[in-house]
Design goal:
- The chain has a 3-stranded antiparallel beta sheet with strand order 2-1-3, with no helix packed on it.
- With 229 residues, the chain is mainly alpha-helical.
- It is elongated.
- The protein is 63% helix and 5% strand.
């Protein structure tokens, strides 16, 4: 079962954006059974205005042994109604090569590079056209060996910088720990010194020798007062 939309139909209309409820998906069976009817209903309600202006969709069933040709640029979806073996091909001619190449190089990057390699062998003039379009648009082939090498070099550079940054952070944390430990040791040493000084003062204040000296001084003062006329 097929459904086709003309190229002028907006993508969000074809996809049913805003019509898919929470916890719903856009798998083929759900699209045909639920989302597509909502799209057609919304188009009827809009009376051909807004995003649904000139809305069209074509539905049909392809039977065994039949061939379907999808025009360039047409939106389409298909649902297998039974066990099916399908053979599909994307057609490109010299007449529409430029348009197809521009779309393929962005949408199918890996395939585009493989295609370009085959064009070099079998259709050099089309390969030259593809490269001319790339230069015109300043487009870089993602899977070109030179570009792959550049990306790998850049990734290696980024990995090295990341590793150096981690090492610097680790060293910074360790330095901070060392400084904190040193500060704690210095504070502990100062506390021990203050404690020793305090204990020494206490011993000096309460030593028996000092008490005896005090008594001797007091006795001398008393005796002096007694002897004086």
């Amino acid at each position: 079962r097929w459904v086709l939309f003309p190229p002028h139909t907006p993508k969000h209309v074809v996809k049913g954006k805003g019509l898919i409820k929470k916890n719903e998906d856009d798998e083929a069976i759900h699209y045909f059974m639920t989302i597509l009817p909502r799209i057609k209903q919304r188009a009827a309600e809009s009376d051909g205005t807004g995003d649904y202006e000139n809305f069209q969709c074509y539905e049909f069933t392809q039977n065994a042994g039949e061939t379907v040709y999808i025009p360039n640029g047409w939106w389409h979806a298909v649902l297998n109604l039974s066990h099916t073996v399908g053979v599909t091909q994307n057609f490109c001619s010299q007449q529409n090569f430029e348009e197809v190449w521009i779309k393929t190089r962005s949408g199918r990057k890996k395939m585009a590079y493989k295609w370009l390699s085959q064009l070099d062998k079998h259709y050099p003039h089309l390969a030259a056209t593809a490269r001319k379009l790339n230069r015109r648009d300043d487009f870089v082939m993602y899977y070109d060996p030179e570009e792959v090498a550049k990306r790998e070099k850049e990734k290696a550079k980024q990995r090295k910088l990341k590793k150096q940054a981690k090492a610097a952070q680790r060293e910074k944390r360790q330095k901070k720990k060392r400084e904190k430990r040193r500060s704690m040791q210095e504070n502990s040493s100062d506390s021990d010194s203050d404690r020793s000084s305090s204990e020494s003062e206490v011993r000096m204040t309460h030593s028996p020798r000092n008490e005896a000296s005090f008594r001797d001084t007091k006795r001398s003062r008393y005796e002096s007062n007694y002897i004086s006329p």
